Amino acid sequence: MPEAFPQIEVAIAASTGAVGQRFVELLHDHPYFNVSALAASDRSAGKLYGEAVDWRLDSELPQEISGMELMPLIELGEPTSPNVIFSALPSNAADEIEVHLAAAGKAVFSNAPDHRMDEDVPLVIAEINSDHMRLTDQQTTSGFIVANANCSSIMATLMFAPLEEQFGIDEAHIFTQQALSGAGYPGVSAMDITDNVIPFIAGEADKLRREPLKMLGTAYQAADFPIFPTVSRVNVRDGHLIVAHLSLRETVDLELEHITEALASFRGPEEVRNLPSAPKLPIHVLSQPDRPQPRLDRDTENGMSVSIGQISEEPNTDRMGRRVFKLIGLGHNTLRGAAGQSVLNAELAYARDLLTP
Ligand code: NAP
User: Fold this and answer.
1) pLDDT tens for residues 100-118?
2) DSSP type of residue 69
3) Quick check: is 28 catalytic?
4) Domains 8-150+339-351 and 151-332 share a fold
5) Domain 151-332 is classified in which CATH homologous superfamily?
6) Beta strand 107-110 with 169-177: parallel, antiparallel or unpaired?
7) Residue 29 CA to chain centroid, in angstroms?
8) Section 133-148 average pLDDT
9) Quick one: which H or E segment has residue 264?
10) What distance separates the 2 farthest-apart alpha carbons in the chain?
11) Cα of 252 to ligand 1 centre, how many Å?
């Protein structure tokens, strides 16, 4: 760990959207990072942040950020721009520019889907697969890209990881109820979502089939079990709820309390536990029969913990005779599911001295 935490200058790409605003909120007063550049699309470049943004968070827009001028994205590649970039760029817009920035020597912590499944790009949840970070050595650019998974993939992977490690998962069926902010701002039209549930989110199910396996495997070999996802958009502001049915591999003598204990005792490696954004408990197990709920549980440990409840065993085995366990998880999609996860990954990179000031 660098001594006395010298601050590193950082930039935020696409700082005005749902995830970009969370980056501003999390980084404006951060012990390791100082936001010294904000970039936006051609629509917003040249404006002051406070003029361009439609600030939607409950916290105050920080004064010092409000007065900063938004620069064109391409200028983030200049040698004078910060060497660390948090990207909240939308899909497609991220594809070339993130590679360009890595080629310009920048460390890019991305939320966009474009490079998540690239073989040499690590998809990181610091507590689960921090060892995957070494894949950045294989990138041919002088800088690197570290990606975040999709928000629901992050929640599902946190729910799966302790159980995959201790008992092995043979098959997973998941049903998501995803919040409005998951679609960005302004997102789904009020006419479509009021008094309604939309059982479709473009491209989402496919991400849930693949991304958790990349994170649960080794850096070079994905985990191997089928995930059957069904996704939906619900009329909730923040917080994705996931119902999971898991067929486990090692179930001889397995009691429900072993599952509860595996989830409740999950901590992640020592080097991650004391990072500024790391929650004390990445997973909170709830015993109340009607939890977790988005309004009550999404902000647990600053939105960085996943709450899991209703842990139970189905009375019937599956067709293969395997015991099936049910759990319901809930996490904050723009915090643990996006900006908070990127910041935690960057803190880990900082602690490992991987970031150039
Ligand atoms: P959003 O609210 O729609 O914001 C999109 C941002 O991108 C805005 O800041 C917009 O800024 C900027 N932008 C739009 N087109 C652009 C372009 N062509 N070039 C450069 N900037 C452009 O979306 P979001 O929810 O923040 O999502 C951002 C990224 O995070 C996406 O890749 C998404 O898949 C991912 N993600 C989101 C969540 C979530 O819960 N929302 C979770 C995980 C991952 P201006 O128009 O003001 O320039």
Assistant:
1) 999 999 999 999 999 999 9
2) B
3) no
4) no
5) Dihydrodipicolinate Reductase; domain 2 (3.30.360.10)
6) unpaired
7) 21
8) 98
9) helix 256-264
10) 64
11) 47
pLDDT for 295-326, tens place per residue? 999 999 999 999 999 999 999 999 999 999 99
pLDDT of 3: 52
258 tagged catalytic? no
| 43-97: pLDDT as tens digits | 999 999 999 999 999 999 999 999 999 999 999 999 999 999 999 999 999 999 9
Tokens of 231: 């996704």
Q: Which of 132, 240, 284, 332 is catalytic?
A: 240
Q: Does domain 8-150+339-351 have CATH number 3.40.50.720?
A: yes
Do 216 and 246 touch, CB atoms closer than 8 A?
Answer: no
Give the position of tokens 């936006």: 40
Q: Which of 126, 123, 166, 170 is nearest to 148 (CA)?
A: 123
| Residues whose CB falls within 8 Å of the CB of residue 329, separated by 6 or more in sequence, listed in order | 155, 156, 158, 159, 241, 242, 244, 292, 306, 307, 308
- Supply the DSSP symbol for 282: S
Per-residue pLDDT, 4:
67
Residue 55, ligand 1, Cβ within 6 A: no
pLDDT in tens, 178-193: 999 999 999 999 999 9
Structural domain spans, the chain: 8-150+339-351, 151-332
Q: Please, are residues 103 and 95 in contact by the beta-carbon 8 Å criterion? A: no
Please name the amino acid found at residue 221: Q
Q: How far is the CA of 248 from the centre of ligand 1 (A)?
A: 37
Residue with tokens 């409950």: 58
Query: Ligand 1 mean position to 281 CA, how many Å?
Result: 29
